[in-house]
């Protein structure tokens, strides 16, 4: 299954919790890592007008091996040093060919994908790229058993080089989102001379791919990327990248303000982002924002009373005020979300807004009354969240404060926190009636926001989901109609027909309410004056290639 959340991607630290918590109190009143250093050449220098760009971050990569990279810190670097068969235009979720020369030819049964490959491409070590090298890389991704290996292992039956520049992939079952999956940063070719296939045979401190940059130095607090002079595509607009890894958001914030880095991206705290945005409006520097694809949501466990009653789940959906949550918890640095499918995808439909609105307490009370609840017999719900997330802590406090003020005692929340390891172990065992979670997509297709949440391989109306996506997510949702809809969209190759299926899926979610979508993140980067070409793609990755000054 895909990850619930990644600590490297979290915005903020607990040191800011009390100051932000005051925002929720206003509502109540008014209502040592150890990393081997690999030096390939030279030392990292700060940018001094040599055409190199200095990028600051707080994210330290666990590995540079694409077969094991599953955190944003690692995937962002792999992305910038690699190519994939398919990629995304900045700001778009539509795939386009990169090392492939066209979209795949798909067999009538949806199981065989034939992909023509680009010629004249070489790896950083001079090895030619061809179909055998691509097949080797995909097989290695599956067989080495790294963190993201399931992405291909679950769907791919075989990979073959059917000619020098033609790749044929056989799937275990139809999967219409497969081209989007091939755009995942880790599904990139690596040199067969530098890597090998075998369980746990990883190369965490090197990277030899085909991309516009090659790794020049990998140190404990800095990395250096030099331009690959034999790159097949458009050359970078800069002379290379110096990545500086700062120990805290405060250090990143200060390094950018003092000009020590040209670009700052991940992870700044919400109040720091607000401060930098304010200064950017005065012309001190540039603020670049983009609609991200990370979604936050509330899980409702249908196996725990009284959430077994759909009216109770619907009442929770009606009560939530997303614009208020965005303002008070997120300082306006997100977008209210009304579907489990984010707005970055064309098929998203805001059905929760149409059906429930925001802060619709009258409807919530009516629903609870129809289910047999009252002030004398209230609904009492525990809401849980992992201790690593101050943002979700604030969201939980806001839910409680809002219900206390406006629901006349009919709906009451009790806020509970637990360490992250315990939280993620326990949620699939039905320990929590409700929980606040984030979802970071692996690939940009609506399927990645549907099947992992709603799919159920084994279950019943009586027991809910016993095995499958909804069980691991903690909702235990089971609906045989939903299972059929998921299967249909995975097989359907016609985009317009598939869009209609996704519309039916979202309508079913809005009726059954196994989850309540809350917000969709925005990503923020900051650049000094004179720096241009700063772009963020929808998977939260800063694209180095176009940056110049």
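^ structure tokens above, recovered residues below v
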């Amino acid at each position: 299954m895909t990850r619930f959340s990644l600590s490297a991607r979290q915005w903020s630290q607990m040191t800011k919790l009390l100051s932000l918590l005051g925002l929720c109190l206003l509502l109540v009143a008014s209502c040592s890592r150890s990393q081997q250093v690999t030096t390939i050449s030279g030392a990292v220098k700060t940018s001094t007008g040599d055409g190199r760009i200095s990028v600051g971050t707080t994210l330290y990569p666990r590995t540079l091996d694409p077969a094991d990279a599953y955190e944003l810190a690692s995937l962002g670097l792999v992305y910038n040093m690699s190519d994939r068969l398919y990629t995304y235009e900045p700001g778009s979720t539509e795939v386009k060919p990169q090392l492939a020369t066209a979209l795949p030819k798909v067999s009538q049964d949806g199981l065989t994908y034939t992909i023509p490959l680009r010629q004249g491409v070489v790896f950083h070590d001079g090895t030619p790229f061809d179909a055998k090298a691509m097949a080797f890389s995909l097989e290695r991704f599956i067989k080495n058993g790294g963190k993201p290996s399931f992405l291909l292992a679950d769907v791919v039956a075989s990979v073959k080089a059917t000619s020098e520049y033609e790749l044929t992939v056989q799937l275990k079952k139809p999967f219409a989102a497969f081209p989007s999956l091939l755009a995942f940063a880790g599904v990139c070719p690596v040199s067969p001379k530098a890597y090998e296939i075998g369980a746990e045979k990883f190369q965490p401190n090197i990277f030899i791919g085909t991309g516009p940059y090659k790794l020049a130095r990998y140190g404990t607090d800095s990395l250096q990327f030099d331009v690959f002079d034999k790159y097949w595509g458009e050359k970078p607009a800069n002379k290379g990248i110096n990545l500086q890894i700062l120990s805290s958001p405060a250090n990143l914030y200060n390094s950018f303000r003092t000009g020590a880095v040209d670009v700052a991206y991940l992870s700044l705290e919400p109040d720091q982002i607000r401060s930098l945005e304010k200064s950017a409006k005065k012309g001190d520097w540039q603020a670049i924002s983009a609609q991200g694809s990370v979604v936050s949501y509330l899980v409702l466990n249908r196996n725990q009373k009284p959430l077994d009653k759909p009216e109770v789940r619907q009442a929770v959906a009606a009560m939530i005020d997303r614009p208020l949550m965005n303002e008070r918890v997120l300082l306006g640095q997100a977008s209210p979300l009304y579907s489990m499918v984010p707005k970055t995808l064309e098929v998203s439909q805001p059905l929760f807004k149409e059906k429930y609105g925001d802060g619709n307490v009258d409807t919530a009370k009516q629903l609870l009354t129809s289910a047999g609840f009252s002030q004398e017999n209230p609904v009492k719900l525990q809401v849980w969240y992992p201790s690593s997330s101050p943002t979700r802590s604030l969201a939980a406090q806001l839910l409680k404060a809002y219900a206390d003020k406006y629901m006349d005692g009919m709906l009451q929340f009790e806020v509970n926190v637990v360490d992250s390891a315990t939280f993620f172990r326990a949620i699939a065992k039905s320990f929590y009636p409700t929980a606040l979670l984030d979802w970071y997509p692996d690939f940009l297709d609506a399927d990645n926001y549907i099947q992992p949440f709603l799919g159920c391989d084994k279950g019943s109306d009586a027991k809910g989901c016993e095995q499958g996506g909804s069980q691991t997510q903690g909702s235990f949702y089971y609906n045989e109609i939903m299972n059929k809809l998921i299967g249909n969209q995975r097989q359907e190759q016609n985009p317009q027909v598939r869009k209609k299926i996704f519309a039916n899926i979202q309508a079913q979610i809005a009726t059954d309410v196994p989850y309540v979508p809350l917000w969709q993140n925005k990503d923020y980067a900051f650049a000094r004056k004179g720096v241009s070409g700063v772009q963020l793609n929808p998977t939260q990755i800063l694209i180095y290639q176009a940056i110049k000054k």
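The chain has 17 helices and 22 strands.
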